Amino acid sequence: MYPKDYLYSKNHVWIDNSEELVIVGITSYASDELEDIGKMELPDEGDEIEIGDPIIADALDFYSPVAGEVVEVNPVALFNTELIIEDPHGEGWLLKIQVTETDPKLMDQQTYLDMIGDME
């Protein structure tokens, strides 16, 4: 459920930095907490974001663990928010970002799982 090669933030956002562009999404833990996403606001393509900027706004805010330029917004997830709930670590990704800086506090899979285990 939580890909081993992703990095995770304390704010329940994951990044996949295995490609030239970093892919960003919310974790399964976060999607379970949301249950339903009503209105969703994402940055626009071409926007510059900083570490800590909001990347998705709804009942809860999720903050970017990277800085850089938003290159692509997932059009499927934007118009089918249920996909974010159903497949948050796959087709429910949110953004592709040309990264200039990564939060040094990102966690590996096991550290993140330990953190959310302590929260339950």
Describe it.
The chain is 23% helix and 30% strand. It has helices at residues 28-34, 75-79, 82-86, 109-119, and strands spanning 7-8, 13-16, 22-26, 48-49, 54-57, 61-63, 66-73, 95-102. Strands 1-2-3-8-7-4 form a 6-stranded antiparallel sheet. A two-stranded antiparallel sheet has the order 5-6. β1 and β2 form a beta hairpin. The two termini are 17 Å apart.
Give the name of the CATH architecture: Beta Barrel
- Quaternary structure type: single chain
- Count of strand segments: 8
In CATH, what is the class? Answer: Mainly Beta
In CATH, the topology is named OB fold (Dihydrolipoamide Acetyltransferase, E2P)
Could you estimate the helical fraction of the residues in percent?
10-25%
Side by side, the strands of the main sheet go 1-2-3-8-7-4
**Termini separation:** 17 Å
The class by helix and strand makeup works out as alpha+beta
Mean pLDDT score: 89
Task: Write a brief caption for the model.
With 120 residues, this protein is an alpha+beta fold.
Could you give the topology of this structure?
Elements: E1 7-8, E2 13-16, E3 22-26, H1 28-34, E4 48-49, E5 54-57, E6 61-63, E7 66-73, H2 75-79, H3 82-86, E8 95-102, H4 109-119
Antiparallel strand pairs: 1-2, 2-3, 3-8, 4-7, 5-6, 7-8
